[in-house]
Design goal:
heterodimer, A: 106 residues, mainly beta, six-stranded mixed β-sheet, 11 strands, 0% helix, B: 112 residues, seven-stranded mixed β-sheet, four-stranded antiparallel β-sheet, globular
Chain lengths: 106, 112
Amino acid sequence: RKEVEQDPGPFNVPEGATVAFNCTYSNSASQSFFWYRQDCRKEPKLLMSVYSSGNEDGRFTAQLNRASQYISLLIRDSKLSDSATYLCVVSYKYIFGTGTRLKVLA
Amino acid sequence: DVKVTQSSRYLVKRTGEKVFLECVQDMDHENMFWYRQDPGLGLRLIYFSYDVKMKEKGDIPEGYSVSREKKERFSLILESASTNQTSMYLCASSFEVTGELFFGEGSRLTVL
């Protein structure tokens, strides 16, 4: 089993839709979790950290479920500019998932 | 702004050549990382370093070595390049052990 697993997608959603991605991890001792965004042919950039109590940043909500060992990212009111690959990251060695591709359609 | 600079955006090398990929960060970060990114496989950690002259293996260190003689510089070395090392190489740095990673723009290496 991979240490960090994501559905590669692609997720094709219309503008304004709500979409959610999950990411499962295998190491129960993992302490830090992140979501990164990577645009085509660009480097990854931090979207948000994931805190135990869940956290929100505008249209984005991240949650952690330690019992089931997964993190999630919810995007509300999708915009065309949200089209990208979303990577989940689990420390301590910053293990990346393979990424989930999102395409928001006009 | 944090800047992570990778020396070459595109390289073409021949099988058996020695290849150096250089990475420099300007924010006095303790931690530096080398990843490779391949379609369908995502980012895979090759090596990382938490301090000068210190290195730890990541998930795929075979065929690679690293050097960190100065805090701001982390070099990836392919002693004898092979075609299966054709990939996008990404360098990153972070201030805290579990802090935000800042990436360079990447170096696309083609080994013929």
